[in-house]
Batch of 2 targets.
Target 1
Amino acid sequence: MNRIFSGVQPSGAMQLGNYLGAIRNFVRLQDDYDCIYCVVDLHAITLWQDPKLLAEQTRHVTASYLAAGVDPKQSIIFNQSAVAGHAQLAWIFNCVARIGWLNRMTQFKEKAGKHRENASVGLYVYPDLMAADILLYKATHVPVGEDQKQHLELTRDIAQKFNHDYGVEYFPITEPLIFGEATRVMSLRDGTKKMSKSDPSDYSRINLTDDADAIALKIRKARTDPHPLPETIEDLEKRPEANNLVGIYAALADISRPEALAKVAGTQFAGFKQELADLAVEKVGPIGAEMQRLTADPGHVDAILKEGAERAAAIAEPILKDVMEIVGFLRP
Ligand code: AMP
Ligand code: TRP
């Protein structure tokens, strides 16, 4: 069977983009693939995380997987630092990837910003660790949001170069799975910026744990333009904020963007926003409530992570052993 690997960083509150772009798809893939879903704490510390909060954030992301419907009996759920092979394989990939490849990564450029010289080395080699996450399990498919596409291309390049340099056909060439009507959910304050856990403005995003009032308020305050909703997709695409809200509506209602637009074309934003808020509360509310329930019982969440780490390590171990042999490390 084909194998799925994906991950989310425990670096803040889970938001609607994480749900619609990633974890909702995790749930839908469970029956057709062997799935491994990771909470990538090694990735999170590429930007400093308060040690007092990191464990809590790790449980928070785990709770979001469970609340969205990932079944820990069927799929593997674990935190990255619990399986040492991720860091070990990442080192080998640091020696396979080329500096020129990493220099092209747009996420590094965005996150490092003007302070490039002061960014952590970890932030720079982050995509090598991501390739290691995936290939440590020889995963064939990786469900992610649109923003991770470039990192997955790099993963393919690393697999190819490793195979070529060592004269083997060892690693698979991984396929990205980017699907749904919300592969790139934008900020509610700025339709040209991605909705993100780390945006300083809480009004820019809908958190999965927001209550009904907060969800409705944030949607009501979402930036829009003064015109009624357009009649055609071409016109919609010229208006980033309107396009974003219609995309969110389509994804939540599980219909296509043209179908969603057909329902609201020509109407004013006020009415549409009310409808969108009701739908968001209906779909996100129960997930948030379940997350609250799960985080009240950290013992239960920790037990799932522990069992997941054991199952993940059992898959990773023989693969890492093969890799060490291919590279020529002495294993006395
Ligand atoms: P991160 O929060 O950066 O760890 O992202 C975890 C997963 O959620 C990745 O698959 C991302 O591509 C996806 N994701 C994060 N933000 C968004 C967004 N605004 N729209 C769609 N997908 C997203
Ligand atoms: N880089 C991803 C993000 O920030 C998270 C991630 C780390 C990941 N390792 C992964 C996603 C492996 C898919 C597969 O969104």
Target 2
Amino acid sequence: MKIHNVKLLAVAAEPHQYPEEMRPEVAFVGRSNVGKSSLINTLINRKALARVSQNPGKTRTINFYEIESKIYFVDLPGYGYAKAPKDEIARWGPMIEKYLYNREQLKVIVQLIDIRHPPSKLDLQMVQWLRHYDVRIIFALTKMDKINRSQIPKHTKIIREALGAGSDDILIPFSSETKQGKEELLEVIEKIVFGEGEHHND
Ligand code: GTP
Ligand code: MG
């Protein structure tokens, strides 16, 4: 999938603000600062359409990006950001949950985990919750440029085991700095969303 046309279609806090069209959706989840907005910018070839910050808690709404008029990428606020004002923390949980809980057109979730560290308790809770609701998950292991190349298999294995990932679970080391993992992630997303057998001209 070559991505040229992208627009920020909707910024939502409540379900009535979600787009109404039944386009397939891919949502990106993970703790604050793990690199969700950066990863989306990388996939869509834009430097800063999704707002990025070195301070956690940057994305505070559910942002729908329309890709090539056929699919939506959904940037969610991160979890686990303890310094946010309490009323915001209280709002984010339900905001994310409401979205994930009953979104029929949600085809796959990309769960981001920092490749440098084993998944946190909150990461594991999120994965458990998603598995419970039978949502298809792809794991993107972010910030791979921050560890030595030779360490990548070891870190991937530790994360795979901590997640209790099976042989058909997909883990993709990724970097928004170097763009490593970008093509593989796009291919996997495309396969899941549009099916194996479909052919595209692009
Ligand atoms: P919230 O919106 O707060 O949930 O955070 P987020 O998950 O969207 O993270 P964001 O994309 O804003 O990135 C957080 C910080 O990590 C920024 O300073 C990014 O530049 C940095 N970052 C993200 N991805 C990478 C990466 O692959 N490599 C490196 N070195 N830095 C990264
Ligand atoms: Mg963000």
